[in-house]
Amino acid sequence: MTGETSTESSGRSAPAIVLLSGGLDSATCLLIALREGFRVHALSFDYGQRHRLELDRAAALARRYGAAGHRIVRVELPHAGASALTNEALAVPTDGPRAGTIPITYVPARNTLFLAFAVAWAEPLGADDVFLGANALDYSGYPDCRPEFLEAFERMANLGTRAGVEGGRRLHVRAPLLRMTKGQIVAEAARLGLDFSLTSSCYEPGADGGPCGRCDSCFFRRKGFAEAGIADPLAAAP
Asked: Which pLDDT tens digit goes with each residue over 61-102?
């Protein structure tokens, strides 16, 4: 993992790591962590994704809501060609999500890699909480967004770190949106004051940054805003 950039500032409250992609879910997690009083250190990853716009949005969100720090870490995947999100030769599906099927936009072990880096930062930082926007209801079927995976990763992290073994601390992998529908997530984000125009959910945004309106991520975002009865400032026609 190379190519790290960071912005840091100090604060007095307890630190926490928030995995901040720049999308709707991670932005909502950012605001939840801030509401709980944490000094948030945002962590984003440049893994060669075709939707790199999300990194700009993550930086804007971290600035807007006063994160104590924001790191963008470059990750070179062992096989970038395996996912449509990292391989331009593969088309991003536009025919809607299919239940029980892991889509070609799945990036092998992505959340495992991201959470491992978060833990490696959290331990010396003195942070016991790592937030991520995983969701197991309205999502594309990624196996590393399931509660079973997150529970197993938390156990592993506490077994494999000094803080967990002898430091009298316990690491918590926090996924506050895990069992929420997209409509509930949008409603919660609105209640917390999220500026939706700063987020980007699309897997294949246009040159102007606008969403395609056809990919799975756009589908779930549109579903969420419709259920919440809130207008999406980034809405695109399907």
From this structure: 999 999 999 999 999 999 999 999 999 999 999 987 777 789
Our CA angle for 202, 206, 209, nearest 5°, is 75
pTM above the 0.90 mark?
yes
**Distance of alpha carbon 8 from alpha carbon 110, whole angstroms:** 25
CA distance 18 to 186: 18
Strand ordering across the sheet containing 15-19: 2-8, 69-74, 39-46, 15-19, 129-131, 172-174
Strand positions, DSSP E, the chain: 2-8, 15-19, 39-46, 69-74, 129-131, 172-174
* pLDDT > 80? residue 6: no
Q: What are 74's strand-pairing partners? A: 2, 46
212 touches 53 (CB < 8 A): no
Query: Residue 223: what are its φ and ψ, rounded to 5°?
Result: -60, -45
Distance CA(99)–CA(90), nearest Å, equals 21
Question: Over the range 148-176, which residues count as b (16 or more CB within 10 Å of their CB) and which as e?
Answer: ebbeebbebbbeebebbeeeebebebbbb
Q: Which pLDDT belongs to residue 95?
A: 82
Surface-to-core class of residue 77, CB atoms within 10 Å of its CB (0-12 exposed, 13-18 middle, 19+ buried): middle
Whole-number CA gyration radius for the chain: 17
Domains and CATH numbers, the chain: 2-180 (3.40.50.620)
Q: What is the mean pLDDT of residues 25-29?
A: 98
